[in-house]
Each structure stands twice: as structure tokens, then as C-alpha cells.
Amino acid sequence: MRVTFRAIDESLAAINTAAEQFARAQEQVATGRRLRAASDDPASALRAIDGRTEMGVIDAYSRSSDTARARLTVIDGVLTALVDTLTEAQATAAKARTTTADQSTRDAVVAQMQGQRDRVASFLNSTFRGTYLFSGSRAQTQPYVFTAGAWAYQGDNVPVTVDVGRSRSATIAMDGRAIAQGADATDVLSAFDALMVAVQARDEAGLDAGMSALARTFDRAVRAQSQVGADEYGIEEEQETLVRFRLAAEKRVSKDEDADMARAISQMAQAQTAYQAALGAVGTASKVSLLDYLR
To answer: Which of 91, 99, 109, 267 has a 20 to 30 A CA-CA distance from 120?
Structure first.
């Protein structure tokens, strides 16, 4: 009788299919991923790419907002110290206006005010990670310098803003002259110098003008600090939104990319059963074919 190997061929094909199914399910269990290549499921792969692109954009906004928040924290602290020093300076200058202020009192007032002026100059020249906070867009240029017997502003009037969300930005570098001088004829550092001269000269009009200049700088600093506070609140709010968007994007990507572990384990078991059955079928077919041949 003619020996046929059709049953053996079919069983071998079944063994290969079961082995492939088992290997694929095993890989999903081992890696936790359903998609190995775009060809596995083009539609899911495209959605996963879109989702990961969105996650990248969200992560960029998150990094930007973290940096902005850190800078604003420093700016807020500097402005707080500036406001406190200006308040202290006005109280110091007021001591020279009393009728009992003798020369030693005036000398002490001037010495105090020199220290206060130097602190204000230091605040205006504050840096964060190597860049100046109050020189506008000229981040590498010191805002205020004393040169040729006068104070000079070297920054510009262009505040630096960064996007911390799709529709929200924050100012991370300010125009120092807008705070220190505003619409005044001179900056606050020059006002300190003029005020000290007025104290020594017992110039009441000069004292009034100097103290008024300090008060106007105080107001400008408070307004700038209010802007910083609003930006800080906005960043905090935006970061909460970014976290929600990131989690939603992760969930969508996971749905397309990640394996259903329960299903993958079940497929492994089914493939193993099919593999064993195919092996048994090959053994049986081989015996029958051999007997047929011997007959």
C-alpha cells in the first residue's frame, strides 16, 4: 500500500503554528507589551505613536514649568527682601528729620543707608543658576553697575517669558529698571545716594524727595511681586492639569501597547495544549504510515 505523509505534514504545520503562538504569548508575558512592531496592529501602533508624542509635549511643559517655578521662587524671595529693605530705609531716613538729630545721628543714618543701598544693589543683581533675574533678556549681563561715579542699568526692557502649558506662560526674567526706576528721573540706587547727601546737608526738601523715591520703588516692587505670585499660582494650577493629561495619555498608550496579561497567559496554555496535541498526532501518523509501508 502507498504510504501518505499528508497527515504528518498537517501535524508538523500545527506544531509550528502552536510554537509560534506560544512564543508570542510568552514574549507578551515576559515583556508586558502586546506590540512588537507597527505591523502587529497598525491602527494601535499609530494611536500609540500619537499618544507618546503627546506625552513628550507634556513632559516638555512639565520641565519648563519646574524650571520657571524654581526661578520664580528665587525672584519672589528677592523682591520680599527688597521690599523689607526699602521699608527699613524709609524708617532710617526718618530719623534724620527729627529736630534732635545731631551730626553723630546723621552720620549713623548715612552709614545705615549705605548698607541698605548696597543690599538693594545686590538684590537687583541677583542670579539664578548663572543668569541674572533683573536684566531683561540680557541674562549674562549684570543689571546695575557703578561706573564713572554713577549707577547705570546695563540690561534691557524685554522681560523673558516661557510657556508652561499650551495656553499659559510665566515671566522668568524681569526688567530691573522698571522696578528700580520706573518713570522716575533716576533709579533707586541714585536716590539713595542723593538721600544720604540730603541727610548730611540737613536738606529737608532733599529728604522728602528721597523718601518719596523710596516709596515709589516700594510700590513698584510690590506690583512686581504680585505678578510673580500670580505666575506661581498659575504654574501650580497648570502642573496639576499636566499631571492629569499625562496620566490620561499613559492610559491610552498602555491600552494600545501593553499586553493583557490574563489573556496572554491563557493563550500560552492554549498554545501549549495545541502543541502537545500536534506532537501526539505526528507520532500516531508516523506509526500508521510505517505499518502501511510494511504491509
So the answer is: 99
Torsion sign, CA atoms 232, 238, 242, 248:
positive
Regarding beta strands 160-165 and 168-173, do their DSSP bridges make them parallel or antiparallel, or are they unpaired? antiparallel
Fold for 53-251, please state it. Answer: f41 fragment of flagellin, N-terminal domain (1.20.1330)
What is the C-alpha separation between 60 and 70, in angstroms, rounded? 16
Alpha carbon distance 248, 257 (integer Å): 14
Q: For residue 101, give every residue at least 6 positions away whose Cβ sits within 8 Å of its Cβ, in sequence order, or none.
A: 95, 109
291: pLDDT strictly greater than 50: no
170: number of CA atoms within 13 Å, CB side?
29
SS3 call for 161: strand
Tell me the CA distances in angstroms from 172 to 74, 84, 110, 258, one per residue in order. Answer: 10, 22, 35, 40
Instruction: Show the cell assigned to 220.
Output: 513698584
pLDDT of 293 reads 46
Q: How far, in Å, CA of 134 to CA of 178, rounded?
A: 9
Q: Where are the domains of the chain?
A: 1-32+261-295, 53-251
CA 274 to CA 285: how far, in whole Å? Answer: 16
Tell me if residue 170 falls in helix, strand or coil: strand
Q: Could you give the 3-state DSSP secondary structure of residue 137? A: coil
Q: Would you give the DSSP letter of residue 97?
A: G
Q: What is the pLDDT of residues 250-284, one digit of tens each?
A: 888 777 666 555 565 565 566 567 556 666 665 56
pTM above the 0.90 mark? no
